[in-house]
Design a protein that fits this description.
Blueprint: E1 18-27, H1 31-42, E2 48-51, H2 58-65, E3 73-78, H3 101-109, H4 115-133, E4 139-142, H5 152-163, E5 170-171, H6 178-181, H7 188-197, H8 201-207, E6 216-217, H9 228-235, E7 243-247, H10 263-274, H11 276-285, E8 287-289, H12 292-310
Parallel strand pairs: 1-2, 1-7, 1-8, 2-3, 3-4, 4-5, 6-7
Helix pairs in contact: 1-10, 4-5, 8-12
C-alpha cells in the first residue's frame, strides 16, 4: 500500500482540493484495531486517531503510536461505557463497571449523574493519555459520543478550560445538519438521536474558547450491506472544507466482538482505506486529508461568531447542562 498522493493539478485551471479530516476511532481497544490504524497512518490514509484509555491494551498500544504522533492529530476518546473507571465512581459505576449506553443517556438527561465524579474520571483519562504519549491530546471526543451528553459536556468544558488554559485541544462535534443526516435511510434515526442529544454543543464549546468542527460525517449502518466501499463515497458528497469524518478500521482477529462495530466490518473498512479505490476516489473528488488542528482556528472564528448571536455570555463557573 502506497502513501496517498494527489495528482498534481494544473495551476491555472484546477481548484485547490477540499480538505477534510479522517479520524480512526477506538485506538487501544485491541491489538488488532491498533495494528490496522498504525498501518493506515504509515500510508498517510488518516489524519487523526482517537485513543481509549480504559482498556488493558492502552499502555503498549500507546507506546507504539507515540513515534507517529507528529503526522496525525492524536486525541482522547473519553469512555464512560466500555470497561470500568480508572478511579472510584460510586454514582455512575458503583460495581466497578460503566453502565450500558442507554442507561448513561437516560441518567444524563435526568441529571442522575455526578458532574464532579465525571470530571474526575475525565482528568484520570487525560493523565493516562499524557503518561504514555508524553504530551497532551490534540483533541477530545467520546466513545459513542458521550462527551456531548448533558452534564457530561459541562465536565468536559471545565476540564479543558482548567487543564489547558492556553492552547486547548479541539473537540469533536458529532451533530449533523438535516442534509447530512438524510444521505441514507438506515442512519437517519441514529444521526438524529446523536444530534438531538448534543444540540448546541459546538456553540457552547465556542463560548468556552474551544474549537470544534462544523460538519461531521461517518455515521453508518453496522450491517454487511451496503459495503463500506459503497458508503464512503457518500461521506464525501458535497463535503465542506474542514469536515470531520470518522471511521472504525481494524483487523478481524476474531478475539474482540462488539455488536456496534463487529470485527468483520472493521476489517472491511481497513481493506477499503488501504486500497487503490480510496486513492482514486480522493483524486476524482478533488479532496485531500488535512489535520483538523490546522484548520481549527478558522472553524473557531465561525463558531464563535455564531455563538455570540445565539447564546448568552458565559460567566465564570457557569454550567451548561
Amino acid at each position: 500500500m502506497t502513501a496517498l498522493q494527489l495528482t498534481p493539478a494544473d495551476p491555472v485551471t484546477a481548484k485547490a482540493p477540499i480538505g477534510f479530516a479522517l479520524c480512526a476511532d477506538d485506538y487501544g481497544l485491541s491489538p488488532a484495531v491498533g495494528a490496522a490504524i498504525r498501518h493506515l497512518i504509515t500510508a498517510s490514509r488518516l489524519s487523526a486517531v482517537s485513543c481509549m484509555m480504559t482498556t488493558e491494551y492502552w499502555p503498549d498500544e500507546g507506546s507504539k503510536l507515540r513515534s507517529m504522533a507528529d503526522s496525525v492529530d492524536v486525541g482522547l476518546h473519553v469512555c464512560l461505557t466500555e470497561g470500568g473507571p480508572m478511579g472510584p465512581m460510586p454514582v455512575l459505576a458503583a460495581q466497578g463497571t460503566f453502565p450500558k449506553p442507554t442507561s448513561l443517556v437516560i441518567r444524563s438527561l435526568f441529571d442522575r449523574i455526578d458532574r464532579a465524579e465525571i470530571a474526575a474520571e475525565i482528568d484520570r483519562q487525560i493523565d493516562r493519555f499524557i503518561a504514555v504519549m508524553k504530551r497532551p491530546p490534540d483533541f477530545l471526543d467520546g466513545h459513542l459520543h458521550v462527551h456531548q451528553l448533558p452534564v457530561i459536556r459541562a465536565a468536559v468544558f471545565d476540564a479543558l478550560c482548567r487543564r489547558f488554559p492556553h492552547g486547548k485541544p479541539w473537540l469533536r462535534n458529532s451533530c449533523q445538519s438535516l442534509g447530512e443526516m438524510l444521505w441514507h435511510p438506515k442512519v437517519v434515526a441514529k444521526a438524529l438521536t446523536i444530534t438531538l442529544l448534543g444540540l448546541g454543543f459546538g456553540r457552547l464549546a465556542a463560548r468556552h474558547g474551544i474549537a470544534s468542527n462544523r460538519h461531521f460525517r461517518g455515521i453508518r449502518p453496522f450491517s454487511p450491506r451496503p459495503s463500506f466501499a459503497q458508503l464512503f463515497p457518500c461521506f464525501l458528497d458535497r463535503i465542506a472544507h474542514g469536515t470531520l469524518v470518522m471511521c472504525h478500521p481494524g483487523l478481524d482477529d476474531g478475539e474482540y466482538g462488539d455488536p456496534r462495530h463487529p470485527p468483520r466490518l472493521r476489517a472491511e473498512e481497513f481493506a477499503y482505506l488501504s486500497s487503490s479505490a480510496f486513492t482514486t476516489l480522493m483524486q476524482t473528488r478533488n479532496v485531500a486529508l488535512v489535520r483538523f488542528s490546522d484548520v481549527a482556528a478558522k472553524e473557531f472564528q465561525h463558531r464563535r461568531a455564531t455563538a455570540d448571536r445565539a447564546l448568552p455570555a458565559v460567566s465564570p463557573g457557569a454550567v451548561y447542562k
